TrEMBL record:
Family annotation (CDD domains): NAT_SF
Keyword hit for RNA-binding: no
Pfam families the record matches: Acetyltransf_1 (PF00583)
Domain N-acetyltransferase: 12-168
Lineage: Bacteria, Bacillati, Actinomycetota, Actinomycetes, Kitasatosporales
Origin species: [Kitasatospora] papulosa
Record's keyword terms, sorted: Acyltransferase, Transferase
Keyword Flavoprotein: no
Protein name as catalogued: GNAT family N-acetyltransferase
InterPro entries the UniProt entry points to: Acyl_CoA_acyltransferase, Bact_Acetyltransf, GNAT_dom
Superkingdom of this protein's organism: Bacteria
Length: 168
């Protein structure tokens, strides 16, 4: 990616397209992991070996970051999951809003940014996976027109996984 694309300067929240390994995106994902770890810790033994590893930077088409000034507020990424049935499959990864900035519509804006990026690539159907212990995420996705689908590889072995799909 040559130059980050941003929202117009009149918007107090600035969205920047960047890479998976951007330090601000990484910091937000670490914060997300720290927040979710206690929810899933009681199931670690049950889930051992059933969860896929994190995406690689090469798999991520774009990572979106929301900023207010220099502070990163939210993130979401678009991942090329693979090729199946003669089509590229893309999924939304790691939608997260910093806990101090929730309730401002940033999660919806992050999903919208990823969906716009997917459409620009010619994607007509998106997927995502979340966990059964994240009712806030499930509610968000359902309110935004996502529909539950059977879990797809590599998430089909995760007993706490919930998968969604959406036509663009």
């Amino acid at each position: 990616m040559n130059r980050p694309r941003t929202t117009p300067p009149s918007d107090p929240v600035r969205w920047v397209a960047t890479t998976w390994d951007d330090p601000d995106a990484l910091a937000l994902r670490r914060r997300m992991d720290a927040e979710l770890r206690p929810r899933y810790a009681p199931f670690d033994a049950q889930r051992a070996g059933r969860r896929p590893g994190p995406p690689t930077a090469a798999e991520i088409a774009v990572t979106w970051l929301a900023y207010e000034g220099a502070s990163p507020l939210a993130t979401a990424s678009l991942r090329l999951l693979g090729d199946r049935e003669a089509e590229h499959l893309y999924e939304v990864k790691r939608v997260y809003v910093h806990d101090e900035h929730r309730g401002r519509g940033l999660a919806v804006a992050a999903l919208d940014a990823v969906e716009r990026s997917a459409r620009a690539l010619g994607v007509t159907r998106l997927f995502l996976q979340t966990g059964k212990l994240q009712p806030e995420a499930m509610g968000l996705y359902e309110r935004q027109g996502w529909h539950r689908i059977p879990c797809y590889p590599p998430y089909d072995a995760d007993v706490l996984g919930v998968c969604y799909g959406k036509r663009l």
